Amino acid sequence: MTDEQLELLRRQIAAYITICEQLTEMHNAISTSTQQDRGTGLGNEPWMAAAGEKRTGKRWSSTPLQLQILERIFEEGNGTPSKQRIKEITTELAQHGQISEANVYNWFQNRRARLKRMQSVPEANMRNQNLRHKLNL
């Protein structure tokens, strides 16, 4: 390659790098605004993804203090709190680490399901013990 061709190639590569960086910035900006806008339409809640929408991003992990607060609130109330209460809980928990309303909503849903599952295990064990007892007689 001649010196002129090498120089032209360098300029083309530099232009390509600039375009790639701009595309990356645009993608990140669009992704961020899409995540912030999600759930603002009629009938949508922030914790509900659109049908067929793939979840992206990192999983949320509670801090020990957030978990302690969530457990205390769960013990006080019945089931999943109202939308307004979820907002209040999120505001309180945000003082102790990053969290969204979707995280709070999902935590209560999962905690309720876990409680039901744990309550059904002892009942199943009792039925099995009764059945074994009847079979041994």
List the helices and strands and how they pair.
Layout: H1 3-37, H2 64-76, H3 83-94, H4 101-136
GO cellular component, one term: nucleus
Protein name: WUSCHEL-related homeobox 8
Region (Disordered): 33-58
Q: What does the model show?
A:
Residues 53-118 form the Homeobox domain. One of its GO terms (cellular component) is nucleus. Keywords: DNA-binding, Homeobox, Nucleus. GO terms for molecular function: DNA binding; DNA-binding transcription factor activity. It is built from 4 helices and no strands. The protein has 137 residues and is mostly helical. It has helices at residues 3-37, 64-76, 83-94, 101-136.
Low-confidence stretches: 39-44
Question: Architecture of the largest domain in CATH?
Answer: Orthogonal Bundle
Number of strands: 0
- Note the run of SSEs as H and E: HHHH
Strand count, sense and closure of the main sheet?
none
Mean pLDDT across all residues, rounded? Answer: 82
> What fold name stands as the CATH topology of the largest domain?
Arc Repressor Mutant, subunit A
Proportion of strand residues: under 5%
Note the total helix count.
4
The shape is elongated
Q: Quickly count the domains.
A: 2
Structural class label: mainly alpha
Please tell me how large the radius of gyration is: 26 Å
User: How far is the N terminus from the C terminus?
Assistant: 95 Å
CATH top level of the largest domain is Mainly Alpha
Question: In percent, how helical is the residue content?
Answer: over 70%
